[in-house]
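Deliverable D5.2: sample structural annotation.
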Amino acid sequence: MFRGSTQLSLDSKGRLAIPAKYRDELFASCEGNIVVTADPSRCLLIYPQPVWEPIEKKLSSFSSFNPQIRGLQRLIIGNASDVEMDGSGRILISAPLRQFAGLEKEVVLAGQGEKFELWDMVKWDLEIDTATACKDGDIPPELEGFSL
């Protein structure tokens, strides 16, 4: 399980150093083979390859005759990029994916269970501001009765 957020920097070539606390798990679970793709929220999703494969299969199984589904297939599968973590624990984020997510130098890697989200730091701060702005009555029905 990947949890927590880490502020990182992309280098001049678009490489991201995966934090050491996740490297061993990624090498053990997928030999450093990772899939990076676009998310409708304008961040990037980073999956260990074995976690990604059933997601891709399920998304591909939906009818492409529905324009909304087809759009998501284009976005998510069409932008999926196979990436291999190097010996230093770095992955290369392609220029088109960096551009899609608006990634500059300062980024946030946020653990989301079996995957990560990669955000531009300014956009991440805005997302957190939005998430903490919930007022009474704005809570989704799925979270009613949930307590931390």
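Annotation notes: The longest helix spans residues 49-61. The chain has a mean pLDDT of 94.
The annotation will be released with the project's public dataset once the embargo ends.
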